[in-house]
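User: For a benchmark we're assembling, each entry needs the component sequences followed by a predicted structure for the full assembly. Here are entry 17's components. Please fill in the structure.
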Amino acid sequence: MAFPNLEYFKRDRTRQLFLIWFFLTPSLIIFTLYRIIPLFWNGILSVQFWSPFGESRFAGLYHYEEMFFFDEVFWKVLWNTILFMASAPIGIALALLVAILVNTQIRGRNVYRTIVFMSYPVMTVAVGIIWQWLYNEKVGLINYVLISLGILEKGVPFLGHFSLALPCVILASIWQVIGFYMIILLSGLQNIEPALYEVAAVDGANAWMRFWKITLPLLKPLLFLCFVIGIINSFTSFDLIFVMTQGGPAHATDLLITRIYTVAFKLSKFDYAAAMTVVNFLFFLGLTLLANKLSGGEAGAVETER
Amino acid sequence: MKTRWQVVGILGAAFWAMALAGASPAQAQKKMSVLTWNIPYFEEGFKKWVVEFNKKHPDIQIERLDKKGTEWSTFYQTQVVAGTAPDIIDIQGALWLEYASKGGLLDLTPYMKKEPELAKQFYPEVLKGWIYEGKQYALPFIISKTLLFYNKNMFKEAGLKDLPKNFDEMMSSARKMTKGEKSGFMTLNFDWLYWPLFAMNGIELLTPDLKKAAFNTPQAVKAVETLAKATQDGVINKISWTGRWVEPNDAFAAGTVGMFHAHAPAFLWFKSKAPWVNEETVGAAHLPGGWSTPNSHSILISKSCKYPDAAWDMLKIIATGEGAYALGTGTNNLTGNIEVNKRLLEYFSKTLPVAVPVLKTQLEHLDKLCGNWPIAKDAEVKEAFYPELQNALLGRKSAKDALADAERKVNRVLQSR
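Assistant: Structure for entry 17:
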C-alpha cells in the first residue's frame, strides 16, 4: 500500500487552497441549498402542470407560450419593472448631488448627512404607509400643499391614478434608498486626493471640467455598485408596492415580483409563477452581465499578486 | 480518569432516558390542527370547542393556528406542499373553490347524508354556497353579506326622505348628497362585493352553464357608463374602485359619504373610528332589490386529514349549539345556524344594541345572494374582469371597450387549462 505524498500537503499553495475551501464551504452549502437547488426546482416546475393538491405532469413550454403570447398582464408588469429599474439613475444622480453638497465645508454638514441617511434604515412597510398618507387625496400633505399654492383645485388620488401611481411609488422608493447611495458616493468623494483638484485648477480647469474629468471617472466603480443596488431594488420592491397599491389600479404599479406572488398565492398557479420566475431570473442575469461589461468586465474580481 | 468516564456514562444514560421518555408520549399522542382566519383573540371560545371535542376524542390533541387574511392562503398552501396541511380550516369567501376543484378538500356529502337532521339547522341558501359539482365541502362558520349603510345626516341635508328603490334612484340620491368633499356613494370592491350593482341592473356574469362570459350586454355598458360618470363627477367616491378595506371604511367614518355598500363587519370597524356613529346618524338597509354578495367564512377539512371522522365531529361542534354560540359571542358575528342566531340576536340586543339592525339584514333576502358563482377559477375570472372594470370606471377606457376586453379575457380564463 502506497502512502500518499505528504509533501503535497506541506506545500504553501495546498495549505492556502485548504484554507480557502474551509471558509468557502459553509457559504457554498447554504448557497446551494437555498439558491441553486430552488433555482433548478423552479426550472423543472415551470415545464409542468403542478398544483399543491395533486399529481404533476409534463407541460412542455405551455406556460412560456401562455406568458409570451397571451398574457397581456405579463408584458405590462415587465414594462413597469423596466421603468422602475430605469429610475435608478435618477436616484443615483440626486444622491451624487447631495453627496457633493454635504462633502463641502458647509456648516452642519453632519446633520444634513444624518437627515438624508435617516430614510434608509426605516422599514419599507413604514415607508409605504408614510407615503400612502402623503399621497392621500383628502388628507395628504402633498395635495394640501398643492391646493394651498393654488396649483390644484381639488385633491388628486395619486395612487389611484393610472399614470401617476407608478411614478409616485418610484419616488417613495428613491426617497428610501437615496441616503444609502449618498453614503456610498460620499465615501468615494472623500477618497479622491484633493491634490488632483488643485493641480487641475492650476491647469485652468473649471469646476464643471473637474467634475467630469476627475470626480466622475474616479467614482465609476461606486456608481456601478449603486446601479446594481438600484436594479436589485427594482426587483425586490415587493413590500413597498404591496403596502402602497397592491399593484393597482389595474396593474399600473404591478412589478414582476408582485405579479409572481399574486399568480402563485392568490391564483394558486405555482407552475405559471415558476415560469415567470425563470424569465425574471434570466432578465436579471442579462442585466447584471451587461452592467458588468459596461463597468469594465471585472466587477467583483479579486486582485491578486502577479 | 475513571471518575470522568463514569460521569460521561451517567450523563449519556440520563440523556437517552430523557429522550426516550419524552419521545414516547408524543409518538402515542394523536394530533389535529385547526387553522382560523384572523381571530387571534378568540381564545376562550376555542378552548370550549377543544374541551367539548376531547370529551369524545380524549386521545387527540388539538393545535390552534391563526393567520391574518393576507397571510392565510400563502401559509395554507405552503403547508399543503410541506405535507403538513392543517386538518380543519376556516376560509373566507370563495378561496375554497380552487382547493376543492384540485381535490385538496374532503367531500362532506357522505357525512351529511348520514346525519340528515344536521342540514336542517342551517339556512339552506347559505349551505348551498359551499357546494361544488354537487358535493358539499363546508359547514358555515361566521356569515356576512353586503348591505347599505347610510349617513342620516347627509340624507337630511340633501332633503332625502326615502331610501332608493332601484339603481337609478340610488345614483340620483347619491348625486343630491354630493357637494365639495362629500360624495354620495361608495362601495367595497374586493371578492365581487360590488356585484349587486350589476345584479340590480339584470346583468349576469356568466352563462347558466358557467362556461362563457355573459356580461357584455347593452344594459351592462349603460350601467358601467353611469357608474363611470358618477365616479368622474365625485358622486361615487373613487376609493370605491381603488381602496380595499381600510380606506373605504375610514372614508365613511370621516362622515363625508352618503351611502356605503359594505358587508356587516365594516360596521364595527368604522364605528370604532367615528364617535358620531349611532342609531340616530347611521342606518342599515338593503340595497335596492335586496341584492347582496356573501362574504361568509366556512369551515372545511383538508383531504390529507388523518382523522376525518374526528375532524367531522369538530366541525359539528364549531357549527352548531354551544360551539357556534361561543363563536358568535366571541367574534360579534352571526353564524349559519338558525337556532343559534336567534340566541345571538338576543345576546347582541343586550350587549351591542347598535349593531342589531345591521345584523338583522344579514338574515334577510337570502334568496338574493349574488357574486358567488361556484367556479374553480373564481380568482382568475375576478382578475380578468376587475382591472378592465377599473379601466372604465376610472376613465381610461370607454365602458364598451373595457367590457369587450374583459369578455375576451374572462372567456380565455374559462377555456384555458
